[in-house]
Design goal:
The chain is built from nine helices and two strands; from the N terminus they run H-E-E-H-H-H-H-H-H-H-H. It has about 230 residues and is an all-alpha fold. Among the domains are: about 90 residues, Serine Threonine Protein Phosphatase 5, Tetratricopeptide repeat; about 50 residues, no CATH class. Strands 1-2 form a two-stranded antiparallel ribbon. The longest helix has 30 residues. The N terminus is likely disordered.
């Protein structure tokens, strides 16, 4: 092999080696610079996520986080005890059980220092509901309502607890109605009551009436008119 061919052969080898090293380096840097967090995320105790529910109304809605600003200095006596056991259902996956336990533990710790914070009590209610502790959820939400009586979301969530889980339909209707009186411009406040009347109470007359009531306040709301056609 002459000198020219040897030189060309060596050059090709060096190019191939350089290309390989560059691609390896680029892949490593790309992983570091991707901005993806590989650590498990933790939902803040202040803003726990809600799992929405959908019924035949076609509107997605579910448990909500409290919307009011935490109260300062306002305190309602006889608050629920914070030593209520945290019982995670055996059916929960290990990671979900761990996250739920951590969330409730953090909320309890914060409430021990800020017992007057209505939003924290509402979040504890949501977290208790998340582990199927409906009595504990009711207690926490009731106290949140004492502290934040004008918060329609807390009243709405109490309607869910009493209606869907505790089957106390009188209290459920009371809280759904309260939520509606506090916030009459949000369509799904009416749809909550529509579902409650139609599917839990099986009272078609009340289901129709609440939609008609909604149309007076929110004229032309499509979800109301379409549901009226199904009755």
């Amino acid at each position: 092999m002459n000198t020219k061919k040897i030189t060309l052969f060596i050059g090709v080898i060096l190019v191939l080696i350089g290309t390989f090293l560059w691609s390896v380096s680029k892949g490593s840097l790309g992983d570091k610079g991707s901005g993806k967090d590989t650590q498990p995320s933790f939902v803040s105790a202040e803003t726990p996520s809600a799992k929405p529910e959908t019924r035949t109304s076609g509107i997605t809605y579910g448990h909500e986080a409290a919307t009011s600003t935490p109260s300062k200095g306002q305190f309602a006596g006889n608050s629920p005890k914070l030593n209520r056991p945290i019982v995670i259902p055996a059916s929960f996956p290990a990671d979900s059980a761990k996250a739920a336990l951590e969330e409730i533990t953090v909320l309890i710790a914060r409430l021990k220092t800020k017992p007057e914070n209505g939003a924290l009590w509402a979040n504890l209610g949501m977290a208790r509901k998340g582990i199927e502790d409906y009595e504990g959820a009711k207690e926490a939400y009731e106290h949140a309502h004492q502290l934040l009586p004008k918060d329609s979301t807390i009243a709405d969530n109490l309607g869910v607890i009493y209606g869907d889980y505790l089957q106390n339909y009188t209290k459920a209707e009371e809280y759904y109605r309260l939520a509606l009186s506090l916030d009459s411009q949000t369509p799904y406040r009416y749809l909550r009551l529509f579902d409650f009347y139609r599917y839990l109470l099986k009272d078609t007359a009340k289901a129709k009436a609440i939609l008609e009531e909604g149309l007076v306040t929110i004229p032309g709301e499509a979800s109301f008119t379409s549901l009226l056609e199904t009755l």
